[in-house]
Protein: DUF2383 domain-containing protein
Organism: Thalassolituus hydrocarboniclasticus
Amino acid sequence: MSYSTVKDVLEYSRRLHEHARNLYQQLRDQTQRERVDMMLQLLAAHEDTLAKSMVSMQEHISQKVLSEWHQFEPGSISEALKGCRELHPDISVDELARVALKIDDYLIGLYRQMLSEATTDDSRQLFENLIALEESEKMRTVRAALSASDW
């Protein structure tokens, strides 16, 4: 297993969110279904918000925390997004929500791993905040999927 800094983990998360956002935006161009398009628009905005949050966190976290090492080997973005292989223009809102939740769960698991290895209070706080952010966004996704029938 290799090691990465907290900055590397944040950068990996940013790229993952940007890649997911781009996938959702591309699928929006292909779908003819209004509800799916609305859900894709919401998910793309969700991923964009999270990507921007990663950049903001890097700017506001101390260099000491950013340079902290963790046992983490960033896998390929495509491996992390393997659930996105299920994306197709005729996907249902429920299937789309499941794919989005897989991405959130993947990152929550990563952040929990980082939290368990954190050596300082500041890095523990960062990973707790990241977990809370992902869980909050995950709940927004679930609520959007549940209310899709009202659109």
